[in-house]
Amino acid sequence: MNSSEPRLTGKIARERIVMIDIPRPDKSVIEAFLALTDLAGTVSDAMDELGIHGAIPAARLQPMLPGARMVGPAITVRNIMQATPPTLGAQARQSKQADIEAHNLARPGDVLVIEGVEHISSLGGNSANVGKRQGEAGAIVDGATRDVATARGIGYPVWARGVSLMTGKWRVETVAINGPVQICGVPVNAGDLAVADDNGVCFIPRARIAEVLARAQALSAGEEERNRDVAAGMSVVEVANKAYFRKIGS
Fold first, then answer.
1. What are the tens digits of pLDDT across the range 146-197?
2. CA-to-CA distance for 126 and 174, rounded, in angstroms?
3. DSSP string, 127-145
């Protein structure tokens, strides 16, 4: 390992990190997605047309920082419920939660994506502070988060199933980092592109990022043209009959 690579912080790093370095798209690709007018909605539409399952509504993954928009490659964490009663772990101050290893591997612009446990926090204020310091774009948690005011205060956007005061430190065990995870039934791999805003979250398989971007840009351009026509006074009938979108391949 050279000096530019992250140092692994504990035993779990040696045993459970599936991939140290993840594939990342060029910065220009991230900027192109962020330039879309209706980010997650447009990406969801593009994925529908391309036959890609990967959109999750905000009703399932709630944005904890209203107005935030996020695009970045996924750093994945898989947590499961541990067998040890949480009181024993708390009394011994022994945690099996290891999202710190994922933060350690993160580069600026990455998105922490956690498969967690329902009603248990897999990301709190300390983790949000580290993620912000690392330059992460934000986090997505299939499970709960807590210390929401802290994350909001530092501008670290989080999408989660809900909020819970119950810490994961004594309740969950991290079993894989940068391995496959399931987020609300959507398979996600390290390096897949996470896209999120107030409307919800999309996960784009890394092999199809360019394809989804091209279709999303075409859809966005059509929507902008239609909005200009409406603002210019075009009749409802004319707007309804004008072809703003071409089918894929035409």
1. 999 999 999 999 999 999 999 999 999 999 999 999 999 999 999 999 999 9
2. 17
3. HHHHHHHHT--EEEEEEEE
231 falls within a domain: no
Distance CA 217, CA 200 (A): 19
Q: What is the residue-wise DSSP string for 42-79?
A: HHHHHHHHHT---EEETTTSEESSTT--EEEEEEEEEE
Residues 6+ apart with CB under 8 A from 154: 128, 129, 132
Residue 226 falls within a domain, yes or no? no
Is 229 a member of any domain?
A: no
Domain extent at residue 53: 11-208
Strand pairing partners for 197? 200
Whole-angstrom Cα Rg for the chain: 20
Domain count, the chain: 1
The residues pairing with 111 across neighbouring beta strands, listed in sequence order, are: 74, 138
The single residue listed with the structure tokens 């192109």 is 32
Each residue of 117-129: b (16+ CB within 10 Å) or e? beebbbbbbebbb
Tokens 């539409």 belong to residue: 45
The per-residue b/e assignment along 19-54, b for 16 or more CB within 10 angstroms, e otherwise, is beebebbeeebbebbeebebbbbbbbbbbeeeebeb
* Domain CATH code at residue 150: 3.50.30.40
52 pLDDT above the threshold of 50 = yes
Q: Residue 40, SS3? A: helix
